[in-house]
Amino acid sequence: MRNYVLLVVTFMLLAHCKLAKGPDDVSSVSNKNWDLVWEDSFDDSVLDTTKWNVIKRNTADWGNYMSDHPDCIILKDGKLYLRGIVNLDRPEDTAKYLTGGVNTKGKFAFQYGKVEIHAKLESAKGAWPAMWMLADKPKYGAYPRNGEIDLMEHLNYENKIYQTVHSYYTLELKQKKNLQYYATTEVNTEEYNTYGLEWYPDKLMFTLNGKNTFTYPRIKDVDPSQWPFDQPFYIMIDQQLGGSWVGKVDPDDLPVQMIVDWVRVYREK
After folding, report:
1. Which of 92, 148, 190, 198 does the annotation list as catalytic?
2. Is-above-0.90 flag for pTM?
3. What is the mean pLDDT of residues 149-173?
4. Going by CATH, does the domain composed of 27-268 fall within 2.40.50.100?
5. Is 198 a known active-site residue?
């Protein structure tokens, strides 16, 4: 009887401890031990150019308005503000809008581990904030042969995010039905959330606030382009505007911004 009571008390204590844990107590769905290997908390007044590049304008659908304009990338109060604005400097730049983004290309890349980005999103018609990853030194050829990992994409005023895997396998071979390659998850964009990924040699585990949203596995007996995720990738964070997916921009909704609190990358112990 005495042992029985002892067991009951122990069980109750353990249950209480488990229930008492808040969301900040859980950083990973896998409950693994991690070593922090890279981070930026944006505590300086200027962008740390040893860690980040400013994304330049390009011909991709998402890059039509990328700019180094000082109103698009602001550091203040320990936060990075990436903004989409109406362009008022037309003599200098004829684009209708300007957007800010940063990446770690050539400065930091990693292969396997965990990345988490703590940020708050704002909404606007035509707004397309994104957190994603591309191969640092592509070894399989031109895009999309090296793949793309989208930790988070948000469209317009939606109350959900998209987390997606792109590759030659999904985009060119059109293999989109025999394996889930994206998921949508509800999110309160008025709050800060942690968007994450745990990356292993055999799977990609996408997370939101430490909880698994979906897993993309490496599978056998298919075209090898299904898994180009065996090489270092760099990080991209940008407040995009417009494009064929998100649709037209409403200038009356601007400015819009993504506020990044911190970025952290871990390696499994």
Report:
1. 148
2. no
3. 97
4. no
5. no
